[in-house]
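Q: Structure tokens for this one, please.
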Amino acid sequence: MKKKNNKKNLKKKMEKLINNKQFIKYLVIGIVVVIAIIVLACCIYLNKYYKAGIDAKKALKGTETVEVSKIDAGYFFDGPGTDSALIFYPGGKVEASAYAPLMSKLANAGVDCFLLKVSHNLAILDQNKADMVLDSKYKYNNWYLSGHSLGGVVATKYAIKHDTRVKGLILLAAYPNSKVGNNIKMLSIYGSRDGILNMKKYSKAKKYKSINFEEVIITGGNHSNFGDYGFQKGDNESYFNRSWQQDITVEHIVNFINE
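A: Here is the predicted structure, written as tokens:
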């Protein structure tokens, strides 16, 4: 009788062991499949971005007054100015070179520009990329940090951590998410037709601004026109063309820096 019971118990244990092995097998397969799906989704997401347009490609060739060169950090726009320079973080999922027209116009107006080329077109993955410029051979009396949209958020974080090296912060359709020291002067520019910028969050974020803060609202301007990458999904049509909005932006940035 005991032998029969022992055989039954052994059989049950074996069946349970087999079932457990099958469960573990299917569990492992399930985990591998989920990971594969996540990796694939990430690859698709990272490889889908707004690409630079024709005007941007032309701007990268330089002009009679602005020399453009590739550097380890991205692109350097060297104009007639020698006193002030601006380090720019591109917007999220936007090819860095899309901001070449704006950088070229700023350099031509006397503010040399360093356009950062960030990992997977996401500045948040390359938050300290400005180190490559500030710690390099380039020497200027006044350094300014700037960025568009998500790039502006990253520029703010960097400026806060390096407030002894950065004189000012220039945000294009962006807002700070932590307190900016009063030794950093700030300029915020956005278009009245911006359909991407979250205005509720923008208004709440004003509590983080430094004491020296200026705000410029470009009437008729939108989110996409700060760069040359086409029309961003969710944005509103601008009343004016991209070149006009960038000219207005350059005018206010130059005035801000020369104050």
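A few notes: The CA atoms of residues 39 and 45 lie 10 Å apart. The mean pLDDT is 88.
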